[in-house]
Amino acid sequence: MQAKRAIVPILAAGLLLSACGGSATPAASTASSSSASSSASGGSKTVTLNVAMWSAPAGFNGITSSSSYDTDMAGLMFDTLVWQSVDQKFHAELASSWDVSSDNKTFTFHLNPKAKWTDGQPVTASDVQWTLDTIANPKVPATYGNFMSVLVGTNSQGQNLNPSQPLAGVKVVDPNTIQLTTKSPTDPNLLLYTIGSNIQIYPEHILKSVPAAGIAKAPFFQNPTVSDGPYEFVKYVNSQYVQFKPNPGYWQGVPKLDQLFVKIVPATSMLAELGDGEVDATYAPGIADVPLQDWPSVAKLKNVKQDPVAGTTIQFMDINAGKPYLSSPAVRQAITMAIDRQSMVTSLLKGLGSVPIGPVNPLYTNFYDKSIKPWPYDPTKAKQMLQAAHFPFSQPLTLLVPTGNQTRMESAPLIQQNLEAIGLKVTIQQFDFATMLAQVGKGNYDFALIGSGFGVDPSSSSIFFSCKGSLNFGKFCDPQIDKDYQAGQSTAVLSQRQAAYTDLQQRIYQDAPFVFLYISDGLMAYNTRVSQATIPTAYGMQQPWDWGVQ
C-alpha cells in the first residue's frame, strides 16, 4: 500500500511547508504555493500544506487498485480498522478496541461510535461487512482478495464460497461491533496487519447498488462524494494535483490544515519544488523520494531538512512466466545472474541500499531468512545456463518501465545492457505507471520494473506469488508455495509460521519469478516549519489527522 500507511504490497511507499503570502485558492492548473495565506474574508489565515509524489493516481479505489498512488490518496479519505506504526505496533482507528478469543479464531472489533460519514450517517459494522463481502466476491478484482483467505467461508484465493450470501466468517453483532472468524488459529498480528490495517472501509449506503462486477469502474471512486477519514475530496486536476479539505466531523478531531494538496511532481523537479516552496514535503519512500543525484543539493536548501529513512520498498523485475520461453526456473535464474545488481546499489544508489534476496525485507527480523544470499553476478554462467535450457536467443524481449521513479528508470538501460551482453534482445518501452500496469495486467510484457513493500507479514506477498494471486501478472505458479502460505496463515504459533515462511523464501529464491533488484534508502525531505506529526517515516506520512504547520 502511506498516509497512516502500513507497508502494503502495493506497487509502489515526508513533508515541507511553504511561505506565507500566496492566494488562498489555487489556480486551475496548480496548487497554492503558500502554507498560510489571508482568507477571502480578511484577517484569518488559510493553512495549506503541499506534499509531492511522482505519479498521478488513476482514481481512489482502495478495493481494486494495485497502485500506491491510488490507495494512498484513498487513505486520506477512508479509514481502516487499525493502523500500524513504524515500530510495528497496532493502534486504534475505526476500531477503538478489539478482542481475540482464547483459541485465536474469533476477532471482535468494537467501532468508535463517534465515527460518521461526511453525509452524517454513522459508520457501522454493516459498512465493514459490505466492504469485506465485496472484496471476497469472485466478480470483484480485489487487490487484497488473498487476505480474506483466512476467514471462514472463503477459498484459498479469499473468494466467498457462497457469494449469494454474506461471507460466513464476517458477522455483524450490533451496529458498532463486527466479528471475524478464521478457519484455524490465526496470529492476531497477521489479521490486524492484513485485514485490519490494509483494507479501507467504504460506505455501504452509497455503494450497495453498484453491481459487484462494476466496482472497479464505479463513478464514486473518481469523485468520492462521501468519506469518513480526516479529509474530504475537493477535486483532481489530472496529472497536476489532488485537492482535499478537512472533514469537520472527523471523530479524531478536525485536521489542523485548511486545505491539503498532493502535487504530482516528476522526480527531476523535486529539488526545485522543495527549494522554491512549491512543495512542502516528499510524501513517502518509493513514490516520492528526492533523486539521489539531488540529495547533496537538498542539504543547501534553506529551511529544508533531509530525512533518510530505512528502505521498505523492494524494486524488482517481474518476469512473465506465462511466456513459454520464460517458464523455466533455470532460465529465470540465469536472467537474475546476468544482471549486476550490486553495481546498481553502488552506482545508482551510491551505496545507500542493498540487494534483496526475496520479498521479505531484512527489517522484518521475525521472518527474514539470513541463510539465503543473493544470486551472484555471473554472466558467463548465465549464458551457459540459457544455452543448456535451449533458450531462443533470437526471441525479441520487451522490458516495460514506468515513468516517475528516476532511479528505476535509470536502472532499465543497465538491465538492457547486461542482458544483451549474454545474447538477449531487449527493447525498453516506457509508460506512465497506470498505463504500464494495464499492459502488465494483460500479460503484454516479458519483463516489467515495479516496486512493492510486500508487507511486514510474509503472507501479504501471496498476492504476487500464489498461483492465483491478484497481482500475479506473470502467471507464476508453484503449488508448494501456496501450501507454505496456507501453513503460515493457519497457525498462531510463531515458530511454525517461521518454518513455513523460511521454506517460502527458499522456494521463491529457487523459482526466481522476479529479479529482486535493490532496496534503496528512502530519501525524504521536509520544511522545518511543519509539525512533528507531519514528518515522514519509513512508512511515509502517517496519522494525517495530526498534520500541521508550526
Number of helices: 14
Structural class: alpha+beta
How many strand units?
20
Domain module count: 3
CATH class of the largest domain, named Alpha Beta
- CATH fold-type name of the largest domain: Dipeptide-binding Protein, domain 3
Low-pLDDT residue spans: 1-43
How does the major sheet shape up? 6 strands, mixed
- Determine the fraction of residues in helical runs and give it as a percent range: 10-25%
Note the overall shape.
globular
- Classify the beta-strand content into a percent band: 15-25%
Question: What would the average pLDDT be, to the nearest integer?
Answer: 90
Model description:
By secondary structure, the protein is of the alpha+beta class. The chain has 14 helices and 20 strands. It folds into three domains: 148 residues, D-Maltodextrin-Binding Protein, domain 2 (3-Layer(aba) Sandwich), CATH 3.40.190; 131 residues, Dipeptide-binding Protein, Domain 1 (Dipeptide-binding Protein, domain 1, Alpha-Beta Complex), CATH 3.90.76; 207 residues, Dipeptide-binding Protein, Domain 3 (Dipeptide-binding Protein, domain 3, Roll). Strands 1, 2, 9, 10, 11 and 12 form a six-stranded mixed sheet that branches. Strands 15-19-14-18-16-17 form a six-stranded mixed sheet. Strands 5-6-8-7 form a four-stranded antiparallel sheet, covered by helices on one side. A hairpin with a 6-residue loop joins strand 1 and strand 2.
